[in-house]
Amino acid sequence: MENMLSSAPLPSSLPDRFILLPDQRPPASSVAVSLPVIDLSRGRDEVRRAVLDAGRELGFFQVINHGVSQQTMREMEEVCEEFFRLPAADKTALYSEDRFKRNRLFSGTIYGDRYWRDCLRLACAFPVGDTKNDWPDKPQSLREVIEKFIMPTRGVAMELLRLLSEGMGLRPDYFEGDLSGGDVVIHVNHYPPCPDPSLTLGLPPHCDRNLITLLLPGTVNGLQVVYKGEWINVDPVPNSFIVNFGRQLEIITNGMLKSIEHRAVANSALARTSVAAFIMPAADSLIGPAEEFVSKDNPPRYRPAIFGEFIR
């Protein structure tokens, strides 16, 4: 628990253990590219084309008019920020460095180095049922708010997968069942103000390992995405979700859709809290390129693997 940034006074200078090598530090981005913004209330044919085009071009996009109420999104942001303001004594029992523990609080040591982040990880089964009893009981409204948020958020993800399926010539329910039947894993990422953001990162460059991710980005910018070999800053649209594809979607489509590297930068003045909802396949799912994307001219680029083994 002593590693938790949010439970310690802000240092006047960046501790040495957080300083990255020069070639790993975040250079200034000069690329001006905006993520596509897709209005899910438009006609289905238009939305289907937009989702597929954005996925092929950037692997990241934003969705608005998605059906999750603004109140639900704001309540989720507020309760997550409130959680990280709790006294350390109220969070100690949650802290764990066991990567395979379903629900835990941890610091930015997960990648073997030190990154300027604290994270609350929660596993959400569907239906939620008794699994919420394993979530923190403080703040008092946390369990209720997360359940209220995650149900429609998962619904948005499943609708996007249906749109992708239709656009790629698959049956609309292709991704239902085991391919999306695992937990929805929530990462509440908290990035406290950093003494020197030029020397460290909140999250290192990485690709998500799941199927599809919806991010509630919060009000402070910090997400960067690779585009044509350079890092671009993401400027979220109000009341939007940022969507990106995980490795499993890349594998299933045999590389037609890409899982794109992204990272989080720190901020010297403001704390940032974001919420990522990861749609996961069932642990025993065998995932490989779908036969619809394999041919003599386009052989399999990935070997099939059990998802649980892939994660391990």
UniProtKB/TrEMBL annotation:
InterPro entries (alphabetical): DIOX_N, IPNS-like_FE2OG_OXY, IPNS-like_sf, Oxoglu/Fe-dep_dioxygenase_dom, Plant_2OG-oxidoreductases
Residue ranges constituting the Fe2OG dioxygenase domain according to the UniProt record: 181-281
One annotated GO molecular function: metal ion binding
Keyword Iron: yes
Cofactor needs: Fe cation
Entry keyword set: Iron, Metal-binding, Oxidoreductase
Gene3D superfamilies with a match to the protein in the record: B-lactam Antibiotic, Isopenicillin N Synthase, Chain
Position of the signal peptide: none
Similarity field: Belongs to the iron/ascorbate-dependent oxidoreductase family.
Name of the protein: Fe2OG dioxygenase domain-containing protein
Organism: Triticum urartu (Red wild einkorn)
